[in-house]
Each structure stands twice: as structure tokens, then as C-alpha cells.
Design brief:
Alpha-Beta Plaits, single chain, alpha+beta, 96 residues, four-stranded antiparallel β-sheet
Amino acid sequence: MKGYVVCVYKNITNEKKLSEYAVKAKAAVEKFKGKFLVRGGRSTSNEGEISPRTVIIEFPSYNEANAFYKSKEYQEAHLILKGYADRQHQTVEGAS
């Protein structure tokens, strides 16, 4: 079953750091055969708080999505954004 990384930002305090993070994170996504399904773009908040950014990445499997998150490459990207964004980041298994 496919795996998905879902990241919903609550706030972003430094767009430059977000851009730096995005370059490194994209390389890690590609290494683990991920595919961006959603990366920013227009959104409408139908319930709950508005989010400045949402990202959804599809991976070939749930295990590969988790391996991506734990990888050295992604963790290096993650450190760039630390303290500059508040978000919920989770790995979810796809429906069968």
C-alpha cells in the first residue's frame, strides 16, 4: 500500500528558510521515489484554522514514506526549518 507524508503548516515565520528547506527536502523526496501531490497552492479552509501551506507527498509504500522522514537527507533539511515554521507532519498509510 502507498504511503503519504501530510504536512499542514500552522505558521511560517521565515520564507527564505522555507525556500532553503524546500530545495533539500525535494532532493530527499526524489531519492525515496516520492511524488508531490500537493505543494502549496490555493486552498479553502472549510473547517478549523486556516493554514498558510499544505504539502502531500506520495511514496510507493508506507515504509518508504517513514524511511524518507528518518533519512539523513531529510533530517538535514528539517534542521534548516527548525524554529521558522510550526506544522503538523505525519505519515499515513493509503487506503486499499
